[in-house]
Structures are given as C-alpha cells and as structure tokens.
Amino acid sequence: MTSEEKRPGAKDRIPEQADPASGQRLNKFLTNAGVCSRREADHRIRAGQVTIDGQTAELGQRVLPGQRVAVNGRIIEGKEEEIILLFHKPRGIVCTAEKREKNNIVDFIGYPSRVYPVGRLDKESRGLILMTNQGDIVNRMMRAANRHEKEYQVTVNRGISETFVRRMRAGIYLKELGETTRPCQIHQTGDRTFTIILTQGLNRQIRRMCHTLGYEVTDLLRVRIMNLRLDGIPEGEYRKIGRREREELNRLLAASPSISRYIRS
C-alpha cells in the first residue's frame, strides 16, 4: 500500500471545523485554478503577490473553504480538488449519504471534505467501494453499457457443484428483476468458496444468482473495481488513489464509449 492518506481511527478524528489541514495548499490551489505552475506559484507567494482574505500569504499556507484568494489584486476562483478514496467497507455500513441512516457510509468515514459513494455494496457485504466528490466519475463508472469489471470473493452455505459453476458462468435469469445476468468469469476456490468477476451491477446480484440455484451467501467481499484493488487496506479504513492508479483508471474510462476525460492525471 502506498503512503497516501489513511482514515484516522474513530477516537482520533479531528472535527472538520478545527482541522486546518483540511484545506488545499495554496500553490496547488493556484495550479488547479489554471493560474500558473506550482513552482511559479511559490515564486509569486514569496514575492508577496498573493493574498488570502486580504492578508499577504505565506509559503505552505492552506486555503480553507470560503476564503478569498487574489494574485496582484485579481480574485482567483478556485476549482474543487478531485478526491477519490478507496474504502474497505465493513459489514453493517450502508452505502448512502442519507443522514437519517445512522450507519451511513459518509458519516462513518468522516472525511473532512464532502464525498459520496460510487455505486454500492449491500449492508451485509464488505470490501472495496470508491468515494469521490466528482459526479462525472460516478456517472461514467456506473453506466451499465461500459461493462467495467468488479471482482468478488464469495462464500456460500453448502458445497459447490460443477452445475452451480457452469450455470453461474452462463448467466442466471432473475425472476424478481425480470433480467438474465451477463455471462461472467467464475472460479471455484474451495468447497464452499469462489471468485466471480461481473460486468454489471444489478441489485444484490450475486446473492440473487446464488439463491436462484438453491444457495445462500454467507460472506461477500469485493476485492477489485476495474484496476483498483482492496489489497492492504484494513477493514474500516481508506486511502487516496495513487497517481499511477488514477492514470490507469483514466485510460480505462477513456476506452469506454463516448468518453471525454473525466479525471485529470
């Protein structure tokens, strides 16, 4: 796992309003706004050309939400920093931003900036889910026609047969949804365990597929979304997407139909 930011433990969380590190570094703020490079931004800050709320800025200073930045008196409109988090969702957490749900994923993570989930895992499932503040990324990844891969490790309540594997692989008609699942990759890994790679995201799809064949899922863990892997992220914690991961994700999204660049590398 890289050294990107991890989620602090619940006891160690810092209230958002008291956390000066929740802002964006001034040189990055200027770069994201298209003013100049980071090196040039540092030069301008040293030269006293940059102010925050009318006060001369200093190197390393952060811009907090609501603050006004100016360069040589010209107000700079900031752009929201892209945030993509890889989160290891525990069982019992609900993938919603709805505050009425006491176990909602947004409050559980407690990230200092507004983020929301890309898709969902049902309450009793666990594993990788992405959190972001970029609506375009959500829309592109969730579009069913793009057939982005998601990989799961699954345990069921009794021994798996060859017939089970063959029928799961070919596609299962789900009466309650009125839809047949797409053919998928499935590999038996134990008497009651298998890995499965889906290219669609029907509601409770794996559980419904297994139930149709007379099996019940006892554990479901998502380990991969496209090129992004759960590897090394402890349950209940997150890390930020790495530069190379983001570049590869950008490439995969660019290969999808009707794409424009949704993630800046």
Q: Alpha-carbon distance between the termini?
A: 20 Å
The shape is elongated
Q: Radius of gyration from the CA trace?
A: 22 Å
The tally of domains stands at 3
What is the count of DSSP helices, taking H or I runs of 4+ residues?
Answer: 7
The CATH architecture of the largest domain can be named as 2-Layer Sandwich
| Percent range for β-strand residues | 15-25%
Multimeric state of these chains? single chain
- Report the CATH C-level class of the largest domain: Alpha Beta
Helix content: 10-25%
Secondary-structure content class: alpha+beta
Order of helices and strands: EHHEEEEEEHEEHEHEEEEHEEEH
Which stretches are poorly predicted, pLDDT < 50 over at least 5 residues? 1-20, 258-265
Number of strands: 17
CATH overall fold name of the largest domain: Alpha-Beta Plaits
